[in-house]
# Entry
Amino acid sequence: MLVNARQVALTELWQQRWPACPPIGYMLRDRYRDLWARFHSLPGSKRYADDDNEYAIILERYNAVLDDLFAGADVYVITSVWTAEPDVPEHQSNMDYWQTLLAEDDPDLAFRTYSHLFVSRRAWQHGCINALLREVADYQVAGVLITDTRMERIHYPYDGGADVILPTTEERDQLRDRYSSWLSSHPAGL
# Structure
């Protein structure tokens, strides 16, 4: 597959901003713990919705934090397709291929895992990716990242909540304080 200038620019931007970690959401927390905050999607740290009211809470919480991070800005929405093969799989027509990462380098080829990243740029609006966020909440999709176009702020939604990585501890603390009732009671913030 040919690499284009946009793919190179995105990769260079990521490596400049987050050199200790590839763009794989679950790895960011450990590598940038001092810039990380986690918010749970439902009261009492409940992981999955049972009804439409709980889905509404999940989407409102995702969108409240996303609005705080990205209101009035363009964002990159990055999705991942996980495979056991290095070949790029078919993808959504509204997303452009970015790169493929060897996410799990197992000596046994049957256990190697590749993350194929796709990206789209869009103007952030409250609710503009609700369908994708609902798939994340139901664990139908994993590995989604939403970031500003300078890749300074990262929102990594997962089934049960969202991890946020911010440029400074001060900004992280302000966001944590604003949504303190959505934080975990676990001592490590998980």
User: Anything to note?
Assistant: Residues 52-70 form the longest helix (19 residues).
